[in-house]
User: Which sequence fits this backbone?
């Protein structure tokens, strides 16, 4: 869970990682070395699944992670 939260935090703070994720989410997630469940949760774009994978409530996620259009593969 900690690795998932670290990845999400970095996704919210690192413009280069966000750009890589937007360009190729599968590759960015594979490079993250997260487990398959965490990668699937993030790729789903479903906040409940993402929170569960990270072990946090939505309020604990960095705002940019929650609010970046397209951060989780949704249409911008």
Assistant:
């Amino acid at each position: 869970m900690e690795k998932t939260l670290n990845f999400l935090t970095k996704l919210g703070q690192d413009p280069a990682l966000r750009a890589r994720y937007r360009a190729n989410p599968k590759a960015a997630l594979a490079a993250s070395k997260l487990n398959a469940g965490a990668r699937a949760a993030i790729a789903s774009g479903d906040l409940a699944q993402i929170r569960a994978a990270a072990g946090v409530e939505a309020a604990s996620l960095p705002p940019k992670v929650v609010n970046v259009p397209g951060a989780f593969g949704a249409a911008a």
